[in-house]
Amino acid sequence: MLDYEKEAAGYDASRGGEPRARAAADTVLGMVPADAARLLDVGCGTATVTRRIVAARPDLQVIGADLAHGMARRAAARLPGRIVLADARRLPFPDGTFDAVISVWLLHLMPDATDARRVVAECARVLRPGGVYVTTVDKAAAHDVGSDIDAVLAARPRRPARDAAETVAAHAAEHGLRPAGQAAFPGLGQGRSPRGTIADLRRGWFTLLTPGDPRTERFAAGLARLPDQDRPRPDPRFTVRAFTRPRTG
Known about the structure:
This protein is α/β, with parallel strands linked by helices. The chain has eleven helices and seven strands.
């Protein structure tokens, strides 16, 4: 698991920067009702996506929440007065506070399945009837684009995806949310190169391959034999799911 306090300084540049943030914000906003008045961005990170939502929808009262102090500090510098330090598993808001709740690239980071379930439960709890929850799903799978890099890494150990689409849908249903749509967007600038993937392996980005593990070095050696070491392979394509809390009465 990465330390997001340390990651904060270089987070934007290492995650596709502004092009990816723009694509994410545009797609998420396309699933937020036009009459929404209050939106919560859970796990907002450095607010690269959040600030684009604010700029595109000045009618929305937008709040961002993140647990990592480093991330929240950077987010608050971009959106003063709109960022709170909060655990997504215990959101500090009353039931039914928001017309829309989003979580972009958050669920896959949860330590275990119970934590992911708690995040979805909290997002559902603070959503008003008729509101929409929008979240990314299947993030790890999005990076498998059928490239030679993916072929080398095919045998790597993997943990069960906390954000598997079917799992997230089941969590949502358990808390009264119904499917309300699906969309996708490209992870612009995030196509992997062999040399960059080797660096990511050695930094611990692949959860079950820790720095210094002999298996990590075997995969790194396989990547080092690939041609065009600095040529990015195709960009990933991220999937977004929307869920709504039905109106009652």
